[in-house]
Amino acid sequence: MTARPQGDQGQVLSSLVAVAAVVAILAGLLVLFGTRGHDSEAKETSGSGTPKPSVKPTTGPSTVGASIPRPSKSTSAPTTAPTTAPTTQPPSSEPTQAPQTTEHTTQPPNPPASNPVTIPAEERPAIEIYNNTPRKGMADEVAGRAKQAGWTVAGVDNWHGKVAESTVYYPPGMLDAANQLARDLGVPRSKQALDNMKKDRLTVILTSDYAG
Q1: Predicted TM-score (pTM) of this structure
Q2: What is the mean pLDDT of residues 184-196?
Q3: Which of 102, 136, 179, 182 could form a disulfide with 168 if both were Cys (CB 3.0 to 4.6 A apart)?
Q4: Which residues sit opposite 189 in a β-bridge?
Q5: HEC readout, the chain
Q6: Alpha-carbon gap, residue 164 to 159, rounded angstroms
Q7: In whole angstroms, what is the distance from residue 127 CA to residue 143 CA?
Q8: Distance CA 99, CA 122 (A)
């Protein structure tokens, strides 16, 4: 076996040491740059940013009930009692009860006609005669005189109320008949009928001034 000269062995060892040193330097550079890259990534991912809210704000109306009381939907309708129309009865041919009224009117009595009109008996309206005096039987006595003069007497009775003087009351359209009846019975005046008098006949009221 031939032994290598000692100078060659020394060169080999120095070459190996140089290679090992280069490898170590490269390894150190790799480690250095590798750790820096991880640190930068870690810093970027863990950096402080604006925190996002975990719950989104709601824009809809609140579910809490309002404290203002709501009016009730059901309202009770007012009840009205049914009304019944008054029944009217046809006018009776004879008075069943004496009217009670007080004469209040500003209309002057009709003066006697200068040319009296004579109405045939068949065209004359019926008449009612009332006694407004304490004298009993006066209405019946005057009713007899009216019948003799051709008038139809529908009834006689007492009149309870205040009348100024003896009067023949007439409804619209019967003025001529009222003036003729007043002449036949000796009654001093004739006037339009009062509201409570019948409108299809003449009404005679005798007071204490009647001298017939």
Answers
A1: 0.49
A2: 95
A3: 182
A4: 167
A5: CCCCCHHHHHHHHHHHHHHHHHHHHHHHHHHHHHHHHHHHHHHHHHCCCCCCCCCCCCCCCCCCCCCCCCCCCCCCCCCCCCCCCCCCCCCCCCCCCCCECCCCCCCCCCCCCCCCCCCCHHHCCCEEEEECCCCCCHHHHHHHHHHHCCCCEEEEEECECCCCCCEEEECCCCHHHHHHHHHHHCCCEEEECCCCCCCCCEEEEECCCCCC
A6: 13
A7: 9
A8: 28
* pLDDT tens column, 73-121: 544 444 544 455 545 454 444 554 545 555 654 455 554 444 567 899 8
Do 207 and 165 meet the contact criterion of CB atoms below 8 Å apart? Answer: yes
Q: Decide: 187 and 181 in contact? Cβ < 8 Å.
A: yes
Determine the average pLDDT of the residues in 144-171: 95
Pick the CATH number of 121-206 from 3.40.1180.10, 2.60.40.10, 3.30.70.2390, 3.40.50.1100: 3.30.70.2390
- Token pair 């709601």 is found at 58
**Overall average pLDDT of the 122-129 stretch:** 96
Contact 169, 203 (CB under 8 A): yes
Indicate the pLDDT class of residue 12, thresholds 50, 70 and 90. Answer: low
